């Protein structure tokens, strides 16, 4: 029996989320709807013109949101990441602890530096735009990968954002090799269309012959496969993953379970903030398949959870909300 359901690796960021208007983007030359890597000077300049008193702060990063979701639904999860010995770094450590997620962070041995931050800007149409300063997490490397935790997990979950740096890519490949040698299944998320567009070759190196489970949205699936329609893209994805999920926003999702395609219906909701929807979908799904649910049931849970997350501000459910979603699955 393995100790953890899921061990994740990814960029550790403190999310600072706030509401903006489209005019804010025009005034500050921000490209709407994308995740853009920025330097500290640029990020500080943006923070000077926002109302930080109304901003919501919590530990984040794509894989962090996913493993926290696994924990909230009742699973056991672990996270390998890197933060600095500063105020936000210690905030991240405590928030992970409060979320019930095991991790590789020793608050007494954090390195000097600056903890990464992600400014999450949400507009009235519920779209999120992110400007990210990676800080010390850009140095995440093989030495930050806890091999023991991966070997003692049912699944390794790899965040696609790591693919942008040589050391991050090396850590992804090392973690995958460690998992495969221990019989731990490997899940990968593309994370963002820009990652696939500019780092496709790196993803191909990480994936190798295949991964056990792949998460992508429609745009990412078509960018990776080079196909201009979803039907062709999903057939091509079979070459890269034994199983995969393609999320389709308000149209739900489709799952390839290794034999057939399963359509997952969306749940009606009023979207106010799409931040974290994909992370929540992955977390709920990973919880499901590691805790006795089949692909269809796990997809239903993930669809319910992501519809709930977009109906509120922030990428994380409250503990009681996660239990309520789970109760809807098992009335």
Briefly summarize what is shown.
By secondary structure, the protein is α/β, with parallel strands linked by helices.
Detailed description of the structure:
With 331 residues, the protein is an alpha/beta fold. The protein has a single domain, classed as UDP-N-acetylmuramoyl-L-alanine:D-glutamate ligase (3-Layer(aba) Sandwich). 39% of the residues lie in helices and 22% in strands. The strands form 2 sheets. A 9-stranded mixed sheet has the order 6-5-1-9-10-11-12-13-14, sandwiched between helices. A 5-stranded mixed sheet has the order 3-8-7-2-4. A hairpin with a 4-residue loop joins strand 13 and strand 14. Helix 6 crosses helix 7, helix 8 crosses helix 9 and helix 10 runs antiparallel to helix 11. 51% of the residues are buried. The model has no long low-confidence stretch (mean pLDDT 92).
Which characteristics define this entry?
331 residues; alpha/beta; UDP-N-acetylmuramoyl-L-alanine:D-glutamate ligase; 5-stranded mixed β-sheet; 12 helices; 14 strands; globular
Q: How many structural domains does the protein architecture include?
A: 1
What is the third-level CATH name, the topology?
UDP-N-acetylmuramoyl-L-alanine:D-glutamate ligase
- The 3D shape can be described as globular
CATH superfamily: Ribokinase
Q: What is the SS-derived class?
A: alpha/beta
In the CATH classification, which architecture applies?
Answer: 3-Layer(aba) Sandwich
CATH C-level class is Alpha Beta
What share of residues is helical?
25-40%
Determine the number of helices (DSSP H or I, runs of at least 4 residues). 12
End-to-end separation in angstroms reads 28 Å
Uncertain segments are none
- Main beta sheet: 9 strands, mixed
Radius of gyration: 18 Å
Q: Output the helix-strand order.
A: EEHEHEHEHEEEHEHEHEHHEEEHHH
Number of strands: 14
Q: Give the strand content.
A: 15-25%
Strand order of the largest sheet: 6-5-1-9-10-11-12-13-14
Question: What is the average of the pLDDT values?
Answer: 92
